[in-house]
Structures are given as structure tokens and as C-alpha cells.
Amino acid sequence: MIELRNLQFAYGESGFRLKIPELCIPQGRRVCWIGPSGSGKTTLLHLVAGIFSPETGVVKTCDVELTALRDADRRDFRIANVGLVFQDFALLDYLCVLDNILLPYRINRGLHLDSSVRERAQRLATEVGLGDMLSRRPTQLSQGERQRVAVCRAVITNPKILLADEPTANLDPGNSMRVLDALDSYSTHHKTTLVVVSHDREILTRFDDTIDVSEFCVKSQLMTSGSKDDG
Ligand code: ADP
Ligand code: MG
Fold first, then answer.
1. Looking at the domain assignment, is residue 230 inside a domain?
2. What is the domain-level CATH number for residue 75?
3. Mean pLDDT, residues 171-193
């Protein structure tokens, strides 16, 4: 469950502003966020994940009011409960595939890394065709393989919420389908709320709802943000 009320967020210098009176996404729902480049899709995803805090309003994720938590608690909550696939993957080049997948367990004091977690990481990697690449570094992988590592890392903690920021951008159709199938399959089996940011209208039929994030963006800022292209 994701719940936003009376939310306002602005970046200090750019003048960009999001205003959201109310947005609720029930648990288990699969939603696609669309909108032109610069309309605030990544910003909104980071507000839901608790990476950013709004100026005013309430953000509730998995029934926890993130806006009432201190920064360190919000971070721990996010790593343990929210699976996030970043727009640029955010893999660490000095770690192998297996250690990249296990990263949430290395950076959150509340998560315990044991042999069952390692086995799960290996199983997830095998499911998406990375089973024989566990000891490789991200620089030794194709774009599609790196994106699949990012998906495995996002789901390793069994999150209740899975957020993916343009997970198929820069992928060929075959790899796009593979990544979307992995997200779909995970969310179906675990009744996970899934939010995927995309500008690919062909994939919209996979989702229960489509939300245009530009509705929440203060118009004058969007008009001056340059590109009208999606992205
Ligand atoms: P989208 O993901 O829809 O392309 P973003 O959420 O990344 O859009 O950005 C929304 C707007 O906020 C853009 O105009 C962008 O330039 C601006 N912006 C993004 N990050 C920052 C930042 N750290 N500081 C100031 N402005 C930012
Ligand atoms: Mg973005």
C-alpha cells in the first residue's frame, strides 16, 4: 500500500514543484507511471521510497508513515521493505554479481546475511539467466544482464513494494520483456505493489492502472523544462 496526502515537494534551486492532494495505490496493485521527461517521475518514486522527504504532507508506505521517521530510520525502512531498481541501475563495479545482489544485507544493520539468503540470491540470479555469471563484475556484463542484476538486488529482501525507474530504457525488446517478466512474476507471487516508470506505451496493458505524473507537476515549471519527449 502506498498513500500520499497533501504532499508538496520542491527542489531548492530548480523551481520544480510537485503537488499531490491524494494518491493511493492498494497493496498488490500493478501501476505504470508515465509522463514527459522532467515531469517528476523519478522524484515521486524517491518520495515513495523515502529517499526524499516532502516539505509538507504525509507519505505512507506499507502502513508506515515515512514522513514521521528520522532520516536513519527512513533509510533502514527503505532498504528492508522497498525494492528499488534505479534508473541507472546503481550497481557497484568493485563487487561481483552475487555481492551486488546481496548489497542490502551489507548496508542495513537490521538484515541478517546467512546461507539461506545466499542460496536465494543464487536462485534469483538463475531464474533470470545469470546463474553462471555470479562471480563477474558489472563491467563484464551486457546492459540487459546488468539490469537483471538490479532487479535481483531489488527483490532479495522480499520487499512488499517494488519500484522500478525506467527499467527497460536502453534495452532491446527481448531484454525488455525479460526484465518486465521478472518484475511481473515477482509481484504476482508475493502480492507486491509494483510501480514501473516507463515511456513505452506498448507495455501499459501489463498493468492494472496508468498514472500520468505530469498531473502533479506545477504546470509553468513543466512548460519551461525543455524536452516534450517522454522519458
Ligand atoms: P523525470 O524522472 O520525470 O524525468 P525528475 O523527477 O528526474 O523527472 O525531475 C523533475 C524535475 O526536477 C526536472 O525539472 C529536473 O530538472 C528537476 N530536478 C531533478 N533532480 C533535481 C535536483 N537534485 N535538484 C534540482 N532539481 C532537480
Ligand atoms: Mg526519471
1. no
2. 3.40.50.300
3. 90
Output the residue whose Cα is nearest ligand 1's atom 14.
38
Q: Compute, in angstroms, the gap from residue 165 CA to the centroid of ligand 2.
A: 7
Beta strands in 159-208, from DSSP E residues, in sequence order: 161-165, 193-197
What is the helix (H) or strand (E) element at residue 107, kind and residue range?
helix 103-107
* Domain assignment present for 119: yes
Domain assignment present for 47: yes
Instruction: State in Å: Cα 49 to ligand 1 middle.
Output: 16
CB 179 within 8 A of CB 153: no
Q: Would you say residue 228 has pLDDT above 70?
A: no
- Assess if residue 226 is contained within a domain: no
Ligand nearest to the backbone CA of 46: 1
For the chain, the domain total comes to: 1
CA dihedral 222, 45, 88, 204 (to 10 degrees): -80
Taking the centre of ligand 1 as the mean of its atom positions, its distance from the CA of residue 166, in whole angstroms, is 14
The set of cell numbers assigned to 52 is 526524499
Q: Read off the pLDDT of each residue in 165-174 and give the average, rounded to a whole number.
A: 88
User: pLDDT tens-digit profile of 44-90?
Assistant: 999 999 999 999 999 999 999 999 999 999 998 998 899 999 988 89
Instruction: Establish whether residue 198 lines the binding site of ligand 1, counting it when its CB lies within 6 angstroms of any ligand atom.
Output: no
Q: Whose CA is nearest to atom 22 of ligand 1?
A: 11
Please tell me if the CB atom of residue 35 comes closer than 6 angstroms to any atom of ligand 1.
yes
Q: What is the domain extent for residue 115?
A: 2-219
> In this predicted structure, what is the pLDDT of residue 219?
57
